[in-house]
Amino acid sequence: MDKLPNIIAIDGPSASGKSTLAKRIADELGYLYFDTGIMYRAITWLAQQQLIDPRDECAITILAEQAQIDVRPPSNNDGRSYDVKVDEQDITWEIRQPQVEASVSIISAYAGVRQALTQQQRRIAMRGKVVMVGRDIGTVVLPEADLKIYLDASVEERARRRYQELQQRGEVISFDDLLASMRMRDRIDSTREIAPLRPAPDAFILNSDGLNIDQVVDTVRRIIAGKNLAGS
C-alpha cells in the first residue's frame, strides 16, 4: 500500500493489549516495535546498578538526563522484540527482572525523568518506520504522529487478561488484589500532573472489550487502509 503512516502511536491503560497490538502491526509493516515503557525500566535498572534510591527524584532525573538509551530491531534470535542498550550495554533482558518491575512506577512518575526520556523517544521515533506504544505518545511524545490509536478496555476486562497471563506463567496472585492494583495504577496514570493518560484529540479510540487480539489487529488494519485511501 502507498503512503503508509511513517510513525504510528498506540496509547492506552495497563493491560489493554496495546503492546501485543503494536508488535503485530510493526511485524506486518516491517517497522520497529518500540514500547516506551522499556526506557523507564532501563533507568530503573541503571539506578539500581548505581545503588540510587528510587525515591531520590533529583538523582534519578540526573541519571535520565545523562544516560544514552537506544532501541533497535532485535539482533539476537532469543525471543526479544528489540534491543535495548544503555551507554552501548545490551540490557534487553535485565530490565525484565522483578526488582525493576517493583520500582519502575515510582521512577516513571518523575517529571524530570519523563522530560528527559521524551526527548530520547522522539530521537528514536524520528528515524521513521516505527510503531511506538505507551501512555502519552499521541499527546506528548509524538503529537505529530501520522496515525494515533487509543486502545481501551474496562478495568475488569484488563485485570482478567492479566490474571490469566500470570496464571499461565505459574504465578500465584489474587484476582481481587490484581484488580485493586490496576485501579490504583489507572488512577495514578490518569491524574498525574505531567502527561496524564488520555486519548489524543485526533486518535482513533478502540475499546477491546469482547474482542480478541485478531479482531483488534484487523480493525487497525482497516484504519490504516482507510488513511491510505484518504491520503492517496
At a glance:
The protein has 232 residues and is an alpha/beta fold. It has 9 helices and 8 strands. The longest helix has 19 residues, at 213-231.
What's the overall geometry? Answer: globular
**For the largest beta sheet, what order do the strands appear in spatially?**
2-6-1-7-8
Taken together, the total number of domains comes to 2
From the N-terminal CA to the C-terminal CA, the straight-line distance is 10 Å
Mind summarizing the main beta sheet? 5 strands, parallel
Number of helices: 9
CATH fold name of the largest domain? Rossmann fold
Tell me what the structure shows.
Strand 4 (83-86) and strand 5 form a beta hairpin. The protein is built from nine helices and eight strands. It has two domains: 1-31 and 128-232, P-loop containing nucleotide triphosphate hydrolases (Rossmann fold, 3-Layer(aba) Sandwich); 41-127, Rossmann fold, CATH 3.40.50. The model has no long low-confidence stretch (mean pLDDT 90). The protein has helices at residues 18-29, 37-49, 57-66, 98-108, 111-125, 137-141, 155-168, 175-191, 213-231, and strands spanning 7-11, 32-35, 69-72, 83-86, 89-90, 130-134, 147-152, 204-207. The strands form two sheets. A five-stranded parallel sheet has the order 2-6-1-7-8. A three-stranded antiparallel sheet has the order 3-4-5, with helices on one face. With 232 residues, the chain is of the alpha/beta class.
